[in-house]
Amino acid sequence: MSKKYLFLVLFIPLLLWQCSTGPNPRKTVLDFLEAVHKSDSVAVLFYADLDRIAEQRLSNFPPEQREKLLSVMKNDLLKSLLENGSTRIWWENCLKVVAGEKVLKDQAEVEVTLIDQKTGVKHYTKMKLYLKDKMWRIYYFEE
Fold it and tell me: Is residue 82 domain-resident?
């Protein structure tokens, strides 16, 4: 068998397998981190469900306060991820290592280690995602 045919025999199944696999939560996290790096508000909103993040962060507040604070919390979250926002600045000063992922049906966790480039201090966390309309959306991360 010639090398050309051998390549096709090996490449086509790999291509079909890659196309048949669903969306990848690890890639979503990488794309989200890149969007924060570029301060791309459209992409940040595409990958992160700020409504759900804000709701989760306000879950200990009484319902009437949650309702009033939801839009403020969402706005603060977005600001922290863009331009000179505190989360963006902190992440920019860190080496980001996106490691393993764990997927269980329509939920996923992706391991992220942030290493401060000045001090070497490591901060290990997980970003949590859910599957919606065949796309992974981030609903939890630590700032």
Answer: yes
The residue type of 67 is E
| Domain annotation covers residue 71 | yes
pTM for the predicted model, two decimal places: 0.82
**Terminal-to-terminal C-alpha distance of the chain:** 56
Which residue is listed with tokens 């924060």? 36
Interval 64-108: pLDDT, tens = 999 899 999 999 999 999 999 999 999 999 999 999 999 999 999
Q: What is the pLDDT of residue 56?
A: 94
Count how many domains the chain has.
1
Residue-range definition of the domain harbouring residue 43: 23-136
Exposure class string for 38-50: b at 16+ Cβ within 10 A, else e = eebeeebeebbbb
Task: Give the pLDDT band (50/70/90) at residue 29.
Answer: very high
Dihedral (CA of 74, 76, 78, 81) sign: negative
User: Which residues does 111 contact at the CB level (< 8 Å), separation at least 6?
Assistant: 98, 99, 100, 101, 124, 125, 126
Q: What is the CATH number of the domain that holds 106?
A: 3.10.450.50
